[in-house]
Amino acid sequence: SVSAAFQKHLRHLGLQDFPCGLGSWNKSRFNACTSPRGGRLGLGADPAGQEEAVPLGEESPEALMELLSDRHSPWALPPDCSPQDQHLREMAVLTPELVRGSNVFQVFRSLRIIGKGVEEVDEGLLQLQQLEELILSANQISRITSANLPRVLKVLELCCNAVADLQDLCAQPPPELQHLGLGHNRLCGPSQDKYLTADFWPNLVSLDLSFNNFTDLLGLVSQLSSLQKLRVLVLQGNPLALIPTYRGFLVDSLPKLSILDDIHIGPDERHQFHGLARQPELIRSEARVVVSIGEIKGVPDPSAHQQLEVGSEAPVITYSYCVTYEF
After folding, report:
1. Residue 14 neighbours by CB distance under 10 Å
2. What is the pTM of this model?
3. Which letter does DSSP use for residue 299 in this model?
4. In contact, 273 and 252? CB cutoff 8 Å
5. What pLDDT does 39 receive?
6. Which of 3-17, 109-123, 132-146, 213-227 bottoms out in mean pLDDT, i.e. has the lowest?
7. CA-CA distance, 77 to 66, in Å (whole number)?
């Protein structure tokens, strides 16, 4: 589940272990005892300028922070860790109480769990009440229940999963969602087209449906046209993208679209395809595929071999090649 992967990630960050968290290395900074100067060093006290306030055997915040930032340190995070992970570790040094226990759930605005074998988006995710971005790419999610998603979510990325049905996701979708990523899944049209409307996603700005199995261009466009805030759309990799008039029909049918299949839509292109949306008869049930072979390496060229002399008894070697395209 997402919760299990999240807890494993927290353990990997070691927010409660040296040099983070509370322990013998910083206990005098955060206890309620009286400081040597007669003041009180409670949570959040600024130790700057109080060098004598760091007892023997403890470490200053600066020294602890250096252990996190120095790439040669055994406590440094790997280079591929997110900036949020580094920020959490720094918080665990400077204000460890903010990331202890259930407090850590209120810190997360973004959560990335990629390629961890997650199959279920469980209700434990609701503990992250401030979560605005959820990235679950390259997992094994086939269904996602919208009731388990934080209501303030703005970005949901499910690329490279096994999602085949949007019904559960659209039961109670996050009302403020701005980006929905469903590329490289198992969605088929036209049964899923009805879930891609403003009734479910009134604030959607970006939608990725690439590399699924949408086939009905007219039906899909009729649903997408209700998304008044949609500016970015990715449909490449679907069978409908092979239709000769595919791009022109979409550009003219969705006048507010700014980017289609990662290509900006300019004024010239809009002018070129103007009126195409009123000619659906041009969309035929056929596809056009152009295959060109640039250069082939690693196979012998028969014409390069010297011709055998007349009467030679040397063996004759024949080369033949077969190229197969599967669609």
Report:
1. 15
2. 0.72
3. S
4. yes
5. 35
6. 3-17
7. 12
Residue 40 within any structural domain of the chain: no
* Interatomic CA distance for residues 29 and 22, integer angstroms: 9
User: For residues 177 and 168, what is the distance between their CA atoms, to the nearest angstrom?
Assistant: 16
Task: Work out the percent of the chain whose per-residue pLDDT is above 70.
Answer: 84
| Spatial distance between the Cα atoms of 89 and 98, rounded to a whole number of angstroms | 11
Domain-ending residue, one of 248, 267, 283: 283
Q: Is the pLDDT of residue 320 over 70?
A: yes
Q: Mind giving me the DSSP string for 8-73? A: HHHHHHTTTSTTSSSSTTTHHHHSSSBPTTSSB--TT---TT-GGGS-TT---HHHHHHHHH-TTS
3-class state of residue 7 by DSSP: helix
> Where is pLDDT greater, at 91 or 167?
167
Q: Are 239 and 219 in contact (CB under 8 A)?
A: no
Structural domain for 10, as ranges: 1-22+60-107
Element (H, E) at 3: helix 2-13
Question: At residue 162, what is the residue type?
Answer: A
**Claim to verify: residue 199 and residue 133 sit in the same structural domain:** yes
